[in-house]
Amino acid sequence: MALTGIQIFKYLSKKNCGECGVPTCLAFAMNLAAGKAELEKCPYITEEAKQALAEASAPPIRTVQIGASELAKKIGGELVMFRHEKRFENPPILAVLISEEMSDQDVDGRIQRFKSVRFVRIGLKLNADMIAVRANNPDKMKSLVEKAMSAPDALIMVMSENVEALKVGAQAAADRKPLVYAITPDNLGQLKDFIKEKKFPVVAKAKGLNELADLTQKLNEAQIQDIVLDSSAKSIKEMFEHQVVIRRLALLNKFRPLGYPTVAPVFELSSDPLTQTLHAATFISKYSGVIVLSDIQGEILFPLLLARLNVYTDPQRPMVTEPGVYDFSNPDAKSPTLVTSNFSLTYFIVSGEIENSRVPCRLVVVDTEGLSVMTAWAAGKFSGDLVGIYIKKLGLPEKLQTKKFVIPGLAAAISGELEEELGSTCEVLIGPREASHIPAYLKEHFSTRA
After folding, report:
1. pLDDT (tens digit per residue) in 292-302
2. Which of 313, 370, 402, 414 could form an S-S bond across to 320 if both were Cys, CB 3.0 to 4.6 Å?
3. Region at 329 (left for phi over 0; alpha for psi -120 to 50; beta for the rest)
């Protein structure tokens, strides 16, 4: 039976230290009771309290880890229905399918694209996460799993209606702790001992939510708890409805039999790649833990990776770019230096315009705690002394022959203070107010190396 906030409060340290993210232990206890916090956030919780509060403090949706060691990724563990309430915790895993029906050329092509289709954004490396291997022939399953594991950072999911093929595939990928798809009411007796012994995460698949809840309860009785749900939906409408209902039952009704992350095999809903992309985007938002596509061309994967990045960032914290120096068009010591804030949108707009100019230069990104230039200047986080101190910390005045630093036109007011901080050997120039004018500005003033 769930405990109230007051009951949970009795087990806490009552230090009111605020280290858990809320100001008082009572507020933390209320969040625990509402399923909006995790017990591990309290640094002073005792083992006795952990045992007593384990059920009350468990996330309403279980956190399931897929993969081993540094490749491991977590899904589930969610605490809210909507991102603006707090944040979404664990991004969904994006998978590409290979199967025994495909030719060797098709299989090799998908694996090669998994390895090569990679992107970098805001200093983050973005790529697909998993190769899903589907085969009913045990020998073919083993061969395909071995091919999939040639991708060194691929999580593995083995999919089959044949129990023996599932076991062979899971054993072949044992070092990567594969996701086994699927235990059903029909094969439960044949697979439960194997899953329990190997401790692999498993997909529970049944027809509809009632049968699925019955299946997870039987798995729990067999001490299998790392479960991912598949409700066997056959249309986008049905799959969407099931995702939302499962989430609501788990979070709002604390219905433990459906308190697990889900899988969305969108390749089963359509054979058209663009339609699959739309379906996958739907389930990034609502609310899948694993999404399986039939292929991952760059134009398909990139928008999905960006959607996942945007949905699974903290809405209360701006997206930021790593502070530092970024080079464009191979600058040398005679190239000019531009300065901007580390708000990611500002960085991408400014860097894009610099690239378009094709003028060799470098861009200093100053830590403004994710604020744009104008906002950071108004808040005192983009002042002449702070920018100057950071530029000197990077050692640029000593390294560069062309000691010209171009600041945004919106921050023109800091030019005198910055020039004073950098010293008489450096020149501070006031650049355009709008990023779209950067190419013309650079070409006019720095089209050839000074």
Report:
1. 999 999 999 99
2. 370
3. left
Domain that holds residue 97: 63-311
Q: Is residue 316 part of a domain?
A: no
pLDDT (tens digit per residue) in 152-182: 999 999 999 999 999 999 999 999 999 999 9
Q: Are 87 and 201 contained in the same domain?
A: yes
- Examine the domain organization and report whether 337 and 299 are in the same domain: no
Report the percentage of the chain scoring pLDDT > 70: 96
**CA-closest candidate to residue 201, choices 130, 125, 146, 136:** 130
**Total structural domains in the chain?**
3
- Tens of pLDDT along 71-129? 999 999 998 899 888 789 899 999 999 999 999 999 999 999 999 999 987 667 899 99
pTM of the model: 0.73
Q: What is the mean pLDDT of the chain?
A: 91
